[in-house]
Amino acid sequence: MPLQLLERIDARFAAGNAQEALERACPGRVILDLGAIDLRQTMWSLPVVDAFRARFPGAVFEARGPDPQRALVAAHLPDSPRTHPALTRPIVIVSFSPHPASRVRVHEAQGTLDLVLPRALLGTRAGHECVRCVEPAQALGLDPSPLAPSLQLPSWRRREGRALARSLTRRAGGPLVALLPGGDATDCWKTEHFRAAALELQGRIGGVALQWGGDAPIDRSIRLVERQHPCVLAALLSQCAVCIADDNGWAHVAAAVDAPIITVHGATDPDVSGPVSRWSAAVWTTEGECESCENSTGKRRCLRCLAPGPVTDIAEKLAAERWPWDRLARWLP
Question: What is the pLDDT of residue 13?
């Protein structure tokens, strides 16, 4: 029997009806629609995914959307049985939206409850973007805590990552250093800077440099093939002594698997959009350093003015804090 259509409501002020509808649904199946958000926003939304899992422990969860978002969230979810008696119950579709001005839309029709969870309106709360991502879920009575994303990979994917790490370090030994460039755009660090930082860091701590992403190859680094499964790459990042990255999606994946990560920031604000992790650090230039730079545009900081030296120094400190656990983790279950 079709349920009553509910009016659109604002998640900040009038989520009571949505919360009541969500509790009344008692779903047997929860579909997570990730098609409208990127990889970075997907990592920020993991606490919301965990909150839905805690609210509906007997439901079957399914992730939909493009890879690598779908593959990583599907791996994060527990294995669901092929047949489940709860499948006869209503379906909840949770759509994650990147648009801050959207509202939480709740309607029920033909036994399906459709929830659109956008970021909360800009300015409703100061702080990191991950806080804004969970505000609509909090308005629905869910408890997405802790706010720091934590990506849980299945044991067999972790074993594949450990095996790949051992094969990459069999010859050179030592730690793994992951380089995660975003490309050659003006808001990305120069390939030459990544190369200089990697060479200097290898001279200090040894090991092997891995490259994932970027338009140009980085000298004396192993460029990972693009056909590698996203979950294996995430497991490999967890084995690294340190990761150096632009503020891109894979930097947030590294933080979610608890890998030491240092991000370089230009136009992006690390206090608003940087990776959230106990092993994370951020480096950026000041506006004054870019005043005479041809790449500078007004008050926008220029990432290309950031020298490799400070990045290498902080990366070495992060790698030292992780030693020797990064190497022991390759052999532990």
Answer: 32
Q: Is 58 helix (H, G, I), strand (E, B) or coil?
A: coil
- What lies within 8 Å, CB to CB, of 214 at 6+ separation is 179, 181, 182, 183, 184, 191, 194
Distance CA 160, CA 84 (A): 30
Cα–Cα distance, 302 to 227 (Å, whole number) = 33
pLDDT in tens, 6-20: 233 333 334 456 667
Q: 155-328 in CATH: which number?
A: 3.40.50.2000
CB 81 within 8 A of CB 60: yes
Over range 282-296, report the average pLDDT. 63
Tell which residue, 281, 278, 214, 215, has the closest CA to residue 243: 281
DSSP assignment of 214-253, as one string?
-SSPPTTSEEPPTTS-HHHHHHHHTT-SEEEEESSHHHHH
**Taken in order 49, 54, 56, 58, is the CA torsion positive or negative?**
positive
CA dist 210 and 294 (Å) reads 31
**Model pTM greater than 0.70?**
yes
Helix or strand holding residue 265 (H, E) = strand 261-265
Phi then psi for 29, rounded to 5 degrees?
A: -145, 135
Residue 194 has a pLDDT of 93
Domain boundaries, the chain: 16-139, 155-328
